[in-house]
Write a structure and sequence with these properties.
The complex is a heterodimer of chains A (458) and B (325).
Chain A lengths: L1 H19 L23 H16 L9 H13 L50 H13 L5 E2 L4 E2 H22 L23 H13 L10 H8 L4 H4 L16 H10 L6 H18 L7 H42 L3 H21 L8 H10 L9 E6 L5 E5 L3 H19 L10 H10 L9
Antiparallel strand pairs in A: 1-2, 3-4
Helix pairs in contact in A: 2-3, 2-5, 2-6, 3-4, 4-5, 5-6, 5-12, 6-10, 7-9, 9-11, 10-11, 11-12, 11-14, 12-13, 13-14
Chain B lengths: L1 H12 L7 H18 L4 H8 L2 H4 L2 H20 L6 H13 L15 H29 L1 H11 L14 H26 L7 E2 L2 E2 H8 L24 H7 L17 H5 L26 H31 L1
Antiparallel strand pairs in B: 1-2
Classes of the chains: A mainly alpha (458), B mainly alpha (325).
The complex binds zinc ion (2 copies).
Chain lengths: 458, 325
């Protein structure tokens, strides 16, 4: 009997402790709510957008070189602009034992799109001076006309460009520039109001949840290792993903999307802790809002919330900067290989990495703050397109939407630009994970040599 | 505080440091062997000579020990602000990359890694030694620098800790020199050979530095005047040659600036072979300088420098007047 009590208490304590790490259950605090809901957490609309994005990326590689262009373009547009009919989830999809619960978008949330939530500013780093939604539409049209999403004539890899740019222009921008900025700022609706008429959550609760949804972390991610979080997205760790042990992965809470996934990819190297830092800040902020119990937030609560927002903004930005750093290193290595020995495969790998670099570099510029000179430098160093084998490079688009190519810088110079990008990321964003650090060998050698501060006199 | 004690301790257990106990032990052994086999002393008297109280506990030696302990505090505070060889290397690397040289050196791409490592280790050591020679020479030549370096030369007896009898400002200059020489070599090799560059080490130490220390580098600052063959003293500085560098005798002024290699002295005309002199007089000729006073050792150089500075300033002013007229 005694044993049983101990066990029950133990189980209770364990679940209770675990629950504190979960971004999944918070009480209804909205005053005057009479419905039967018991949990105020809701961000399925954001998950739907993650799924639209993953599916769009997949579709961007489905072109066959022209004959199915119109069809692919139309399909991609549905995932970008939304559709009245229910859409199939093209990615993420069940893979072996890793079974995904949902197969269509309406099983997650109805009527969502990406276009309406894409950063509206002008994208200076992309040819043509287009706004965010225009850039994606432009890329979609081009992608549909390629074979497998890759255009050898320009070196553009559209699935990578679209995906990495959209993650910034939609998720990152919406979270840090809208939900955590305007919707938490003075003058916005207060916490004693419903998010909208008929809602069961308060304005601040829901705005916060939506930002968390865009971050993309599973609700139980804080209890997992970086490797486990990473393997969830790689569909290699069903046990870590399936938190409620119902045998399927619920995309609404059991799958790491977008930047949360990238954060875990850096953290598993052991030098950083972005995933937990950002997720914890979201959880702590949510606790503050729940603690207000449906009243307006006090000034100390607002200040504490701003503290968490600052942590989220800075670390989310670093995750993107780390990605820029890493892919700049990849591009550098790819150029070295190409210089040694050209092959079509080596060239397409190079172009793919450049696409990721470019996408993340553009994403970095869709945050809350204007990066100013850093953005100008980053865009110049990255180039409008990768340097091609005939030493030309896309520099703009004409009025008909065709790319203009001009003679480019030398390969050596382009390689140097990659190193300068890495340097810029270290100086401006303080990146620490430093994947593909081109100067890592040099710094390890420097430490092997030892310091020279002994004040020895010979 | 704990960090400080650890740092002191570290100096004696880290083979990268010259006063690593292993090197000291080997130096003692070499000294005894030298005295017994070449100076034909009895073992007992050889041991007595090596551990001579008059040398190891002289007023000069005590001030060496104090300076070592004080300097470590200062360096611990200063070191985060000092330029590192990595900073220099990174800067140089970027500069090299902006020069379109890669085509010219591409024929070196196939150099085997072991050759690159050996080459790097030699060049690194030699260039480091070369810059040490010149900085040391300037320390003697320029009055402002001599004011600092005089602290080292004010030692009247020599023991292994005398290497740390160094004014902290001189220590900073040495660290800058190290950052410059090491940073440039590291970056140049990286630019040419990429990640093939490596250091050949023993116990984690550059094997040439290791050999230098194992061969009794600690005896340079000692009273054991080990000499080499004449031909070898043109290549490597013998302990006796460095002791001569500390001599008060005018004949020995501005000789033997070398650290490990004597070739720089040989090439640039400052070589002086060791001599058979018993009881070489060491120190500096300066009557108003107490070589055993810690405050003087730290502050006197600063005063001298400010005197030199104001002197040259006033001469500059008078020059200015002349021109105005
Ligand atoms: Zn000396
Ligand atoms: Zn000297």
């Amino acid at each position: 009997m005694k044993k049983l009590i101990v066990m029950i208490v133990a189980v209770f304590v364990v679940t209770e402790v675990a629950a504190h790490h979960f971004y999944s259950k918070f009480p209804i605090t909205l005053k005057g709510y009479t419905g039967d809901k018991t949990n105020s957490v809701s961000y399925s609309g954001q998950i739907a957008r993650h799924v639209l994005h993953d599916s769009l990326k997949k579709l961007a590689g489905k072109g066959d070189g022209g004959s199915n262009a119109a069809e692919i373009e139309a399909q991609m547009m549905k995932y970008f602009k939304g559709s009245k009919e229910d859409l199939d989830i093209i990615a993420p999809k069940t893979k072996g034992d890793f079974k995904i619960k949902q197969t269509t978008l309406n099983q997650i949330s109805k009527g969502k799109n990406l276009s309406g939530k894409t950063y509206k500013g002008v994208i200076n780093g992309w040819p043509g001076q287009m706004t965010g939604p225009e850039v994606i539409e432009f890329m979609i049209k081009k992608a549909a006309r390629t074979k497998g999403g890759f255009d050898p004539a320009t070196g553009y890899n559209y699935p990578q460009l679209i995906s990495k740019f959209a993650m910034g222009a939609v998720f990152y921008n919406q979270a840090v520039d809208n939900y955590l900025d305007e919707k938490m700022a003075p003058g916005s609706k207060t916490n004693d109001m419903p998010y909208k008429d008929g809602a069961y959550y308060t304005y601040k609760e829901h705005a916060w949840d939506e930002a968390f949804g865009y971050w993309g972390a599973v609700s139980h991610g804080l209890g997992l290792s970086a490797k486990q979080n990473y393997d969830i997205t790689k569909m290699k760790d069903m046990a870590a993903a399936d938190q409620n042990k119902d045998g399927v992965v619920d995309l609404k809470s059991e799958y790491n999307f977008a930047h949360a996934y990238y954060a875990s990819s850096f953290d598993k190297g052991g030098k950083t802790n972005y995933y937990n830092t950002v997720t914890q800040a979201f959880l702590d902020g949510r606790k503050i809002i729940a603690g207000a119990k449906g009243e307006k937030l006090s000034s100390s609560e607002k200040a504490a919330l701003q503290g968490h927002i600052a942590v989220i903004n800075a670390n989310w930005e670093k995750v993107i900067a780390e990605s820029v750093f890493k892919y700049a290193g990849s591009v550098y290595k790819d150029i070295v290989k190409l210089e040694e020995n050209y092959s079509d495969k080596a060239f397409s790998t190079y172009a793919k990495h450049w696409g990721e670099l470019k996408g993340f570099a553009l994403a970095l510029q869709t945050g809350k703050s204007n990066l100013g000179e850093t953005a100008v430098k980053l865009n110049r160093l990255t180039g409008m397109g990768p340097v091609l084998m005939n030493a030309s490079q896309v520099t703009g688009v004409d009025s008909a939407g065709n790319y203009i190519k001009e003679e480019a810088q030398s390969w050596g110079e382009f390689k140097l630009h990659m190193l300068k990008i890495q340097k810029l990321m270290v100086e401006k964003f303080g990146v620490k994970a430093k994947g593909n650090d081109m100067l890592a060998d040099m710094s390890s050698l420097a430490s092997k040599v030892g310091s020279s501060d002994s004040a020895e006199n010979d | 505080m704990l960090e400080y004690i650890g740092d002191i301790f570290h100096h004696f257990v880290d083979p990268k440091k010259r006063v690593f106990l292993g090197y000291i032990a080997l130096s003692i052994l070499i000294a005894i062997l030298w005295l017994v086999f070449l100076k034909k002393k009895r073992l007992k008297s050889a041991i007595f000579k090596v551990f001579d109280k008059k040398i190891l506990l002289s007023g000069s030696a005590i001030s060496d020990y104090k300076m070592f302990l004080i300097n470590r505090v200062l360096m611990l505070i200063l070191s985060p602000y000092l330029l590192t060889q990595l900073a220099v290397a990174t800067f140089f690397y970027y500069s090299l990359l902006s020069i379109p040289l890669s085509g010219l050196i591409s024929f070196l791409n196939d150099t085997p890694a072991i050759v690159v490592a050996i080459l790097f280790t030699f060049v690194f050591f030699t260039f480091d030694d070369f810059t040490k020679y010149w900085v040391h020479r300037w320390m003697h030549k320029w009055p402002v620098l001599w004011a600092l370096h005089k602290v080292h030369h004010s030692a009247e007896t020599l023991n292994p800790i005398t290497v740390y009898r160094t004014h902290p400002l001189e220590g900073i200059l040495f660290s800058l020199r190290g950052a410059f020489s090491q940073g440039t070599v590291i970056s140049t090799f990286f630019f040419i050979f990429g990640d093939k560059v490596d250091l050949v080490t023993i116990l984690g130490v550059n094997f040439l530095v290791f050999s230098f220390h194992v061969a009794g580098s600690n005896l340079r600052h000692s009273h054991i005047d080990i000499k080499y063959w004449v031909w070898l003293e043109k290549i490597l500085i013998s302990p006796a040659q460095h002791q001569l560098h500390h001599s008060l005798d005018e004949r020995h002024y501005d000789k033997n600036f070398g650290a490990a290699l004597a070739i720089w002295d040989w090439i640039f005309g400052s070589l002086h072979h060791s001599e058979d002199i018993d009881n070489l007089k060491l120190g500096v000729e300066d009557n108003d300088f107490d070589p055993n006073s810690i405050t003087e050792l730290y502050l006197k150089p600063m005063k001298e420098i400010s005197d030199i500075a104001s002197e040259s300033l006033s001469s500059l002013k008078s020059l200015n007047k002349i021109f105005k007229i």
